[in-house]
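Problem: given the chain below (275 residues), write out its structure.
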Amino acid sequence: LYVILGLGLNIIVGLSGQLVLGYIAFFAIGAYTMALLNSPVPHNLMWGFWPALLLGVILAGLSGLLLGFPIMRLRGDYLAIVTLGFGEIIRILLKSDILTEFTGGPRGVQNISGPTLFGKPFASDVDFMFLIMGGVLLTIFIYSRLQHSRTGRAWLSIREDELVARASGVDTVKYKLLALAIGAAFAGLAGGIYASRNQFTGPDEHSLMASINVLSLIIVGGMGNIPGTMLGAFSLKGLPEILREFANYRLLAFGALLVFMMLSRPEGLIPSRRP
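Solution.
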């Protein structure tokens, strides 16, 4: 799931050069869409996994567009601060007592139903592993096709120098909005699968630290390429699971690793090849 999130954020940060710190908000939109449409409480809609997942992806993509329209003139630190605020607003709204009847409030949403395929429910970790791997392969395919297309070249030109890209005829607003929408849709996909797999989602799962985790994995692995994202996800999420007895030192290890990477390999473990 972190590979899917990393590839989505790589489109926004690694390819189009937009520093977004509230990326986990799109993940929360996908997760809560799945939860509210596919659990008995609070609304008992029970749409089923696949329609809820599709709607979660669409709503996350639309939220990326809506966020993008007012911030297109912002760059660098200003863009990062605004998107950080967006992520915190979403988390606080989900946690608010005012919206408890609609979102479950601080308690979150429980008993989220899992997917079924040809009448067979996904009841085991192996079933969900196949589902997640299918999502990873789909995400890699879309990312690869976009990266090596005219759209990918436009994103790279914006990342390198937005003024020159605009002067060369690139519609920077359109392509930056497209990057936000597609990256957000990837996060919505991961969020929907995550909520269904855990049968629960709550506001505390969508904190700023989760956004920092996703940003860290693409910094460590290498921005703008698929192998780097996969290596970063394994390094920052896989290894701590294997070495769970050292979980108390996880944040210390994160900080030390980021400092080391900035000093020794600022382009990541697997730098992207310059086209």
